[in-house]
Write a structure and sequence with these properties.
The protein is α/β, with parallel strands linked by helices. The chain has 2 domains: about 60 residues, 5,6-Dimethylbenzimidazole Phosphoribosyltransferase, Chain: A, domain 1 (Orthogonal Bundle), CATH 1.10.1610; about 280 residues, 3-Layer(aba) Sandwich (Rossmann fold), CATH 3.40.50. Strands 3-2-1-4-5-6 form a 6-stranded parallel sheet, sandwiched between helices. The longest helix has 20 residues. The N and C termini lie far apart (about 55 Å). About 0% of the residues have low confidence. Catalyzes the synthesis of alpha-ribazole-5'-phosphate from nicotinate mononucleotide (NAMN) and 5,6-dimethylbenzimidazole (DMB). Belongs to the CobT family. Its EC number is 2.4.2.21. InterPro entries: Nict_dMeBzImd_PRibTrfase, Nict_dMeBzImd_PRibTrfase_bact, Nict_dMeBzImd_PRibTrfase_N, Nict_dMeBzImd_PRibTrfase_sf.
Length: about 375
């Protein structure tokens, strides 16, 4: 599944992009006055293969959840069981992501790809597209293993486990798109997951972990220093090859990171945009880009996370974030806040009159 998905990813359609640029120049506004929205509309036309591209709706948030063996190294003060507890909160509709999803009219799917403790019973069949109501969060059971191994001691995953997680993401993308989603939004949950994110970004960018490691949930100075040291030692131990993204994910990644990479690849293969959330998402996006460089055409950077690694990753991907609010929550919250910007960029191409059709004189 992974190889066939990668093979299906194609470059953006240049004629569609040219048509979008030409249309932007004929709309009743000064050329370039919509700034980044104009280039975003061009990119989305290139992804869709026609102009105007389809409106990015309905929106579907996919939250991939997993636990991390590196938690044993004291990289976060939060207990590991919070991962499972927060999933219960998602399913009850009580998290920030739920509030923002209701505001945006987006569905929420929670995918257990590697939680270490027991969760509520998943929906029969565990199908991401099987949803009775958009405001009713759904749990999909797809647990590859009960948390990763400690990346400070050994590889976090086997290659087969990393592949299984990535293919779960591909499957979820397909199910959500088949159910009608016009845009996918990345979400994540996993106590300690900013540590593997920092390792992934450092590995793919080839830089020191001090530049990619942040304070996550707000750790103190000693914990932060320990976190940087753990990531640095893990990269030294495993020496992951950025040309082998599956190997990088296996060595220092998380199950939710691998699954998010798969979600991005699956969406790109279906020419459906993916709105990236924070540092977990962009670390996974680096892996997706290493698998298939043209997958970047499907990516939209929702926001600039307060985590320093996010800025590094976005620079590597060549993506400019739509909003910058100092967010560092995850869950898909930043992507949801950016969603109206994406919709607005496309709606302009659908609904704004041209100078000729409106009878408005040009300069």
């Amino acid at each position: 599944m992974l190889e066939t998905t990668i093979a299906a990813i194609r470059p953006p359609d240049e004629p569609a992009m040219a048509a979008a640029r030409e249309l932007q120049g004929r709309l009743t506004k000064p050329a370039g006055s919509l700034g980044a929205l104009e280039e975003l509309s061009v990119r989305l036309a290139g992804l869709a293969g026609h102009c105007p591209p389809p409106l990015p709706e309905p929106a579907a948030v996919a939250i991939f959840a997993g636990d991390h063996g590196v938690h044993a190294q004291g990289v976060t003060p939060w207990p590991q069981e919070v991962t499972a507890q927060m999933i219960g909160n998602f399913l009850a509709g009580g998290a920030v992501v739920n509030a923002f999803a209701r505001q945006a009219g987006a569905s929420v799917t929670v995918v257990d790809v590697g939680v270490a403790t027991a969760l509520p019973v998943a929906a029969p069949g565990g199908h991401a597209g099987d949803r009775p109501a958009r405001d009713e969060p759904r749990l999909v059971a797809a647990n590859v293993r009960a948390g990763t191994r400690d990346l400070a001691v050994t590889a976090a995953l086997t290659r087969d486990e990393a592949r299984a997680a990535a293919e779960t993401g591909i499957r979820v993308a397909g199910e959500l798109i088949d159910a009608g989603a016009g845009i996918l939004l990345t979400g994540d949950m996993g106590i300690g997951n900013t540590t593997p994110a920092a390792a992934l970004i450092a590995a793919f960018a080839g830089i020191d972990p001090a530049e990619t490691t942040g304070r996550g949930t707000g750790v103190d100075d000693p914990t932060y220093a320990r976190k940087v040291a753990v990531v640095r030692a893990a990269l030294r131990r495993h020496a992951p090859d950025p040309a082998d993204p599956l190997g990088v994910l296996a060595a220092v990644g998380g199950l939710e990171h691998a699954a998010l990479a798969g979600l991005i690849l699956g969406a790109a293969a279906r020419r459906t945009p993916v709105l990236l959330d924070g540092v977990i998402a962009v670390s996974a996006a680096l892996a997706a880009a290493a698998f298939a460089p043209h997958a970047v055409a499907a990516m939209v950077a929702g926001h600039r996370s307060a985590e320093p690694g996010a800025t590094v990753a976005l620079r590597r991907l060549g993506l400019e974030p739509l909003i910058d609010l100092g967010l560092r929550l995850g869950e898909g919250t930043g992507a949801l806040l950016a969603l109206p910007v994406v919709t607005g960029a496309v709606r302009v191409l659908h609904e704004v009159a041209t100078f000729d059709s409106a009878g408005v004189a040009e300069k």
